[in-house]
Structure formats: C-alpha cells, structure tokens
Amino acid sequence: MLGIAAAVLFFIAFLINAADISTNDTFTSTNVMLIGLTVLALHVAGVGTGWGSRSRRR
After folding, report:
1. In whole angstroms, what is the distance from residue 33 CA to residue 31 CA?
2. Which DSSP helix (H) or strand (E) runs through 44?
3. Which of 5, 13, 50, 56 has its CA 20 to 30 A from that of 22?
C-alpha cells in the first residue's frame, strides 16, 4: 500500500513540475518528491506490510 502511495506522490510531483504549476513554498514538486521517497523507503523497510509476528492457525 505504501508503494502505491509513493507512486501517486511521484506522479503529483511530476505533474507539478511538468505543468509548471506555481504553488506555495511548502507544496513544491521537490517537497512532494521527498515525501514520496520517504514513503517508498518505509515500504522497502517493510512498514505497513501486515506480515508481522502473527501466528497462523490451521
């Protein structure tokens, strides 16, 4: 799920940069890209995968 969120954030950053949309200082394409990289790093680290220490009963 975090991988999909990162892809969406990268796409939003691309649209802001490609369309040359003027935004405020906190919502620039670079900041959105850095948030996407953070979410992607969390995804690669395994946060939010749901495969924790759950025991499976059969």
Report:
1. 5
2. helix 29-45
3. 5
Please tell me the distance from the alpha carbon of residue 46 to that of residue 34, in angstroms, as a whole number. 19
> pLDDT tens across 29-41, in order?
888 889 989 989 8
The closest of 38, 9, 15, 13 to 28, measured between CA atoms, is 13
Residue 23 burial (10 A CB sphere; 0-12, 13-18, 19+): exposed
Residue 51 clears pLDDT 80, i.e. is over it: no
CB 52 within 8 A of CB 22: no
48 CB-near residues (< 8 Å, 6+ apart): 1, 2, 42
